[in-house]
Structure formats: C-alpha cells, structure tokens
Specification:
- The structure holds two protein chains of two kinds.
- Chain A is mostly beta strands.
- Chain A has no helices and nine strands.
- Chain A is globular and about 40 Å long.
- Chain B is mainly beta.
- Helix content of chain B is about 0%, strand content about 50%.
- Chain B is built from no helices and eleven strands.
- Chain B is globular, with a radius of gyration of 13 Å.
- The chains are: A mainly beta, B mainly beta.
Chain lengths: ~110, ~120
C-alpha cells in the first residue's frame, strides 16, 4: 500500500483558502485518493475522493496532477469549525477496502 | 445515513482483565475494521473483516482478537489487557470494494484506559 506524506500542521485564518498537499510517490494504478477529516473525540469523516484531475463537492476540491504522485485538498474560505486533522489516504482499489492512515495534518483556523 | 455505534465511549479496566469492545453498523456493510489511535501515530489498523466469520490481521494485531458472528457486529477482544493498550479505539465499516466505493464510516470511538 502506498505511503503518504503530508505536513504535520498548518495554520490559517477565517475566510482564507487552505490547500493541503499530500505526496504519494508509490501510488498504484488501481489506487484512489481519499481525504478524511477528524474532529477531537470523534471518528474520521469522509470528505472527498478522486482518481485523477479534479473533483469538487460541497465541502472541498481535490486536485490530482497527471502523474498522480501528489494531491491537494482545497478548502475554500475556512471557518473556525474547520479546525481538525485531515488525513490523506491512497488505496482501496483492489485491497478490499483496506486503507492506511498516516499521521494527518492538524489544521488550526484562527479568527 | 450510515450509523456505526460503539458500546462505550469511555472504559476503564485493570491489567489482566479481558475486555470486549463492541461495534454495530446498520447499513449492511460487508467490511468492518478496528483501529487504535494514539497521539503522534495516527490511526493504526488492528483487524478487519470482509464477511461474517472472516477476519484479517491488520498492522498491529498482537494482543488482540476479533469476532464477527453476525454481519452487523464486529467485536474487538483484549484477552489480557495491558497498560500499553490504553488508547482510543475506532470501529469503521464500508461497502464491498468496487473501485471508488471504499468510503469508511467511523463510530465515535471508545477511549480505553488500562490501569
């Protein structure tokens, strides 16, 4: 399973756009890229998933370059409630649902 | 909405006790998972199950066992609890892998303290 590398922490201010980049150099052909969000004392929550190019939903956008060796989660106009840990994962394609969680990026949004 | 419930939010046990952590999902998912989460280490997979009575070891299965007698229920068992098993335990479920549909739905977690 591909290993991911992402920043340990990031700071931002309310109203700003936040981009969190994840490296996954060993991503396999069948792997999807998935991002989860976790608030303190809660289980992780699915945010977005993609395979290539760009995916957008009501919460975030996911940008994936052609080589798929990295991906960027974009959160538009963050608020204090977006303060959380964000995990980038690759896998799932043919591993029967098994995903590997890294340490995640702790995003702190300040007023 | 998918709902994953765990039997306890907080649990305190003594060293050597047998501990059962229960997880139930209500969406007929085939896959179920147990993770533990520790500061600085992220989520680590303990065991997972693709179907009733089937189980696979994750990355850190030592000291744990699991049971899946019914599709909706996945139990994590600590045969003899030790202090290094003090942690947050998270259960998750997902549909059968079919390309992109591997979204895992997590329960609220059980914070276990072993004294």
């Amino acid at each position: 399973l591909a290993k991911t590398t992402q920043p340990i922490s990031m700071d931002s201010y309310e109203g700003q756009e936040v981009n969190i980049t994840c490296s996954h150099n060993n991503i396999a052909t069948n792997d999807y890229i998935t991002w989860y969000q976790q608030f303190p004392s809660q289980g992780p929550r699915f945010i977005i998933q993609g395979y290539k190019t760009k995916v957008t939903n009501e919460v975030a956008s996911l940008f994936i370059p052609a080589d798929r060796k990295s991906s960027t989660l974009s959160l538009p106009r963050v608020s204090l409630s977006d303060t959380a840990v964000y995990y980038c994962l690759v896998g799932g394609g043919n591993q029967g649902g098994k995903l590997i969680f890294g340490q995640g990026t702790e995003l702190s949004v300040k007023p | 909405d998918v709902k994953v419930t765990q039997s306890s939010r907080y649990l305190v046990k003594r060293t050597g006790e047998k501990v059962f952590l229960e997880c139930v999902q209500d969406m007929d998912h085939e896959n179920m998972f147990w993770y533990r989460q520790d500061p600085g280490l992220g989520l680590r997979l303990i065991y997972f199950s693709y179907d009733v009575k089937m189980k696979e070891k994750g990355d850190i299965p030592e000291g744990y066992s699991v049971s899946r007698e019914k599709k909706e229920r996945f139990s994590l068992i600590l045969e003899s609890a030790s202090t290094n098993q003090t942690s947050m335990y998270l259960c998750a479920s997902s549909l059968v892998a079919s390309g992109s549909t591997d979204t895992q739905y997590f329960g609220p977690g059980t914070r276990l303290t072993v004294l």
